[in-house]
Amino acid sequence: xxxxxxxxxxxxxxxxxxxxxxxxxxxxxxxxxxxxxxxxxxxxxxxxxxxxxxxxxxxxxxxxxxxxxxxxxxxxxxxxxxxxxxxxxxxxxxxxxxxxxxxxxxxxxxxxxxxxxxxxxxxxxxxxxxxxxxxxxxxxxxxxxxxxxxxxxxxxxxxxxxxxxxxxxxxxxxxxxxxxxxxxxxxxxxxxxxxxxxxxxxxxxxxxxxxxxxxxxxxxxxxxxxxxxxx
Length: 231
Description:
231 residues
């Protein structure tokens, strides 16, 4: 029972570990709403970064631990390490997905490189500055914002608007922060990186199918004008 309680607390802590709406959509039983505002897009990045980071981490740890997995939830130090790992992978995932999301507006010819840079930076920064937690130093998120800013300036939005070109940082964070001994992670590197890669494929497809770039870009411009003129 104690193991179950720990598991429930752990799983409940994230926003959408099991997003049943997405499952129904995949099965063709429910149509997901379009992404038509910059707020919708921010929520998509936030929620799916949480989903990818936790599910990928949790699945790997469960597979690696094998039959000893339930006992890990009785180890307070391990649970702390797991939580810390999750936040690092989450912040890296936000960084990756923000860049990819911004690139969609280059793909649709709404935005040039400068605008994509601004959009990626603002999307990721907005999410990472509003994280409410007391598990890790807030500098974890401010450091990732700086990483995002640097990547956004150098990004090739034309080349990486499709595919996995933007998704290296989350994979690196998974390799670095997964709470397993380095020997195991060295042996498992290909498996770990592939598992992260496969998670992102579905997220990219969903974004492409749900994003109304006309509406979302127009909404972003509207917000920028309101901020500029103080409306």
